[in-house]
Specification:
Oligomer: single chain
Shape: elongated
Largest sheet: none
Mean pLDDT: 86
Helix content: 55-70%
Order of helices and strands: HHHHHHHHH
Length: 197
């Protein structure tokens, strides 16, 4: 029997894992459930991912890529000049308020969209608490987000902005509340201004 050439199989398996986790949580993830969702033989899932942790790492990495791509395409960096990290005046005046406003808009768009996607990303992100293999990948998105935001402000402020956005997202998701854009914008402005806003 000839082997079927399927260059996208690994990608389909990762997509299937994300679908399974979105529907049933990480507890519902197994090689068998992913194989069924991807419509591939069980052996394909174990060929590409020897363990569930390997599959979870790939799924979390995909979520990280989606987040970073959303941040890159958000318009936050459309008007940047040749200034290097921390060389701009993003922490002052209208530019700092503009950064806070754009980050608030980005969060507002995320929460206006499919909430299940955000819940999926955070379920994978928080799984790193119990699964050490996920910790470096969970840290990757923070590192990339800080690097991107450091193009508009200094690295310390960028880390604080990422921490606040993370905290806001977690509170909204865990409490079932709604995203409070005006409050978030004010808090982001305070961080950008160094606490003086």
């Amino acid at each position: 029997m000839a082997r079927r050439y399927d260059p996208d199989r690994r990608t389909r398996i990762i997509d299937a894992a994300l679908t399974v986790i979105a529907a049933d949580g990480i507890a519902g993830l197994s090689h068998r459930t992913v194989a069924a969702e991807a419509d591939v033989p069980l052996g394909s899932t174990t060929y590409h991912f020897a363990s569930l942790d390997e599959l979870l790492v790939a799924a979390l990495r995909r979520c990280n890529e989606n987040f970073v791509q959303a941040l890159r395409s958000s318009g936050l960096f459309a008007e940047e000049g040749d200034a290097g990290p921390g060389e701009g005046d993003a922490g002052q005046g209208a530019e700092g308020a503009g950064l806070a406003e754009e980050l608030t808009r980005l969060l507002d768009r995320w929460f206006a969209g499919e909430r299940g996607a955000i819940e999926l990303e955070y379920e994978l992100y928080l799984a790193a608490l119990r699964r050490p293999a996920l910790r470096p990948v969970a840290a990757e998105w923070t590192t990339e987000a800080v690097a991107l935001l450091s193009r508009r402000t200094d690295p310390e402020t960028a880390r604080a902005l990422v921490a606040l956005m993370d905290g806001v997202c977690l509170q909204v998701l865990l409490t079932g509340g709604t995203f409070d854009a005006p409050y978030t914008r004010v808090m982001l402005e305070r961080i950008v201004a160094g606490g003086d806003a």
